[in-house]
Amino acid sequence: MLAFYAIYKSYFRLALxxxxxxxxxxxxxxxxxxxxxxxxxxxWRTVAQQQGGAVGGYTENDFAVYYIAVMMVSxxxxxxxxxxxxxxxxxxxxxxxxLKPIHPIHNDISYNVGYKFxxxxxxxxxxxxxxxxxxxxxxxxxxxxxxxxxxxxLAFLSRFYLEWGMAMVAFWTTRIDAMxxxxxxxTLFLSGKLAPLELFxxxxxxxxxxxxxxxxxxxxxxxxxxxxxxxxxxxGIGAQLxxxxxxxxxxxxxxxAGIKRYAAFGx
Amino acid sequence: xxxxxxxxxxxxxxxxxxxxxxxxxxxxxxxxxxRKTRDVQAVDRISFSVSExxxxxxxxxxxxxxxxxxxxLSGLLHPTGGSATVLGxxxxxxxxxxxxxxxxxxxxxxxxxxxxxxxDTFELxxxxxxIPEPEYQRTVDELTELLDLAPLLRKPTRNLSLxxxxxxxxxxxxxHRPSVLFLDEPTIGLDVTMQRRIRQFITDYNQRSSATVLLxxxxxxxxxxxxxxxxxxxxxxLLYDGQLSGLADRFAPFKTVEVExxxxxxxxxxxxxxxxxxxxxxxxxxxxxxxxxxxxxxxLLAELxxxxxxxxxxxxxxxxxxxxxQSPSPLDAPESQKDQxx
Lengths: 267, 342
What we know:
Chain A is mainly alpha-helical. Chain A has 12 helices and 2 strands.
């Protein structure tokens, strides 16, 4: 455990040092994560205004708070690993990782967390700015804040396992862009990113409950907004734990099968 | 030899399946439905063993299977046949204890993080390999001294020259004091001074820690300086396993006979003894078939006015070139493998 702490500390430090070198590109990357929820926020607020102040139980203010929360949670849990593996395998970087006596996912997790911490410096003021601009009012309860922390960690980890496992598809084909695109579209609808899931037809909501994506974004957001009852919270945490385990097994399975196929070309 | 083998290969094989596609639109459409693949035998039932503390050179032309073998031994690749153990582990199972005890240095590959100072990559390795602080400090000091790293450690990797980077790569790969080293072209692209430096370092490291080293190189100077024993691999087959000095006996069909004559001799006269390779001021270099060496030297001494005569093996580069210029048919291989094991 102590050894892992030292390893994470080193990776983390390295991630900060390296990303500091690329401040501008980092800001450009962030822009996408800010603009997308902002766009939905403006659209839904306008719709709510025209419908007399609310859509499906969401007021103008609810939409503002929802999308600011989506922006932050999405920022906390997103990964770019599915785009990175093809490149890594192609140029042989993956071989270097495989030679190390540690699972390569640790490097990626700590790198991701390092990036998130660094970018909080930008994201927190932006969230505050948006809250001020849209005059968002949010009164969190203490227990929802307390429940949010484990829900966010579980969301982050289960999403990481799932997407890391999907990135391993690069062992079988180097053309994974189409798969990634399909994944993004699916999560857009089923994670609550496009709109709160309550606004979707019943069958979409049922599908979202069954699939993992809701638990990786909408659920922590709903907790933060105080829209989850204690029972729903327990069920949700249970679902998150299930997907954490499923994601872990999926990731390990596909990783082990993948390295058997790995040809280490050009490395 | 009473030492236990550190590296042991038993009929190790690797077949790559590569997809093939003919040029043209029609062919690419066909390939959607039916993918054509072809098997390439990169390594073909190779067996050998290396004892603790040995430095063994692995020779072969590009594509012979050297790197594939090293990748299997370092756990990057799964073999398609046969077996191998290194330090008692099966490499491709990637046991963490095994990975902590070996290293693979690839000439064109880097583990140093591009944008940050070298010492920070070292620090990362310290954590990943769980090297205790005092031992880490001692190793860094030692490597700094041996490889003259002091001015480089605080520089970001991207600011280093190729030679400087290679030195740091090697140091990074040795921080955990591995007992088995796989070196794939460790001196590639380096100038002669730097090559010599790296060679000296490998010798020192080998002596200090009695580490086992298996290295490939295109530079014969590396091999001659470091390895007493060499393995020659060609088309995935092991052609030779033995002393470097025995390579010529085994493969060079010719010897070089150098004679010095009191009176000189005409070209036509000399040609009956062998192929004249060079001639100047009474010194003549003849290329003589190995089997005829004894009779030719006898005749030379009897028939010409010889003041000096030496018989030599051709330079090692020429021998190697000669071996690789011949494409052995697959049928030859088992026989030559049998040869070297006798």
